[in-house]
Amino acid sequence: xxxxxxxxxxxxxxxxxxxxxxxxxxxxxxxxxxxxxxxxxxxxxxxxxxxxxxxxxxxxxxxxxxxxxxxxxxxxxxxxxxxxxxxxxxxxxxxxxxxxxxxxxxxxxxxxxxxxxxxxxxxxxxxxxxxxxxxxxxxxxxxxxxxxxxxxxxxxxxxxxxxxxxxxxxxxxxxxxxxxxxxxxxxxxxxxxxxxxxxxxxxxxxxxxxxxxxxxxxxxxxxxxxxxxxxxxxxxxxxxxxxxxxx
Length: 247
What we know:
11-stranded mixed beta sheet; alpha+beta; Aminopeptidase
């Protein structure tokens, strides 16, 4: 839960609070993230004061907005991994990578990560960004790596690079208002890199625990098969949300 001072409040016609949220930007739209209903029906106020906004909240709230013309942007599940009661196995600290591939710290600029990151989220992927490559770099990856989207990148983030020093995969962890957050997991889709994302995740979890992190969280789209991998690695479902675009 975020501190109260970090949340904003939407009021209804009688001045009563109806919704609290965290202000942000999503796909160039103003974004009411982590929206929580706190009073009378917030839908009329959202439709009046948040036209053109992305709103992320409960499935119930999202469905109510959809009935009034909102469109679905993302159906997602929040998951969390306890690193204290269920510590990563010791061998995860010594994960081996395919021949010619090695670990590297996540200290590179966005354009070095972009080819692998963009290829990982093809047009068929539920998390594909439908803008141009230039827009994807400037509106998605660069703000993420510079801490503008989900907080500063944490040291336990890791990359995999090949013999030519090209990034082939990565796990980016950010400090999202005090909560370690896996912001993206990506790899080149070439079959020779199969399993690389899982290897990097195991290494990241082990490094995070070694650095004193007590937990780590993420969000995965409902249609993303990676959810099964996260479950296999010990992540537990905490909530389900809908992100919609208000008409």
